[in-house]
């Protein structure tokens, strides 16, 4: 992970930035929370509920350096915090980029957030559809590369 790998922006500031971005682009509801190895950001906009699940690093991964040398507790905690800050910065960037893409007319809202749209059963489109993509590749049944004349892309 290279983006924001050395960021000093705190997790709190990234969370606040995400809130500000969502308000600016018209979100009407917003919530976030976390547990040990993941965080959740969810919002409502354009009559859709959107959910991002942010995988957080496992603290034990930072007990040693990449060369295998054991870290002291304070160094392990600092490395963990850096990785956590990096992931929150990347999430802020992702949300902002998707919203700007929609605002600029590059794609529709549903296209930009397809995988994160929450369905009535509580799953996201990504959770529901990803296994179907895998099955399609396994079976070798693929749609044509180009749409037929008159088909809407």
Account of the protein in words:
- The chain is of the alpha+beta class.
- It has one domain (11-139).
- The protein has helices at residues 11-24, 73-103, 109-112, 125-139; strands at residues 29-35, 38-45, 48-55.
- The protein has a three-stranded antiparallel sheet, covered by helices on one side.
- A hairpin with a 2-residue loop joins strand 2 (38-45) and strand 3 (48-55).
- Helix 1 runs parallel beside helix 2.
Can you give the mean pLDDT? 92
**Biggest sheet, open or closed, and with what strands and sense?**
3 strands, antiparallel
Give the ordered list of helices and strands: HEEEHHH
Shape: globular
Enumerate the strands of the largest sheet in spatial order, edge to edge or round the barrel.
1-2-3
Total count of strands:
3
Structural class: alpha+beta
Percentage of residues in helical conformation: 40-55%
Distance between the termini: 33 Å
Q: In terms of per-residue confidence, which ranges show pLDDT below 50 for 5 or more consecutive residues?
A: none
C-alpha-based Rg, rounded = 19 Å
- Assess the beta-strand content as a share of residues: 15-25%
List the total number of helices. Answer: 4
Number of structural units classed as domains? 1
């Amino acid at each position: 992970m290279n983006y924001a790998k050395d960021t000093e922006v705190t997790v709190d500031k990234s969370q606040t930035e995400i809130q500000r971005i969502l308000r600016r682009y018209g979100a009407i509801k917003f919530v976030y929370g976390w547990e040990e190895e993941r965080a959740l950001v969810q919002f409502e906009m354009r009559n859709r509920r959107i959910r991002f699940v942010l995988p957080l690093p496992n603290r034990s991964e930072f007990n040693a350096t990449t060369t295998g040398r054991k870290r002291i507790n304070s160094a392990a905690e600092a490395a963990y915090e850096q990785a956590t800050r990096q992931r929150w910065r990347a999430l802020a960037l992702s949300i902002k980029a998707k919203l700007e893409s929609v605002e600029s007319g590059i794609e529709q809202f549903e296209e930009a957030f397809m995988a994160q749209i929450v369905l009535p059963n509580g799953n996201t489109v990504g959770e529901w559809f990803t296994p179907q993509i895998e099955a399609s590749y396994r079976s070798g049944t693929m749609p044509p590369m180009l749409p037929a004349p008159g088909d809407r892309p």
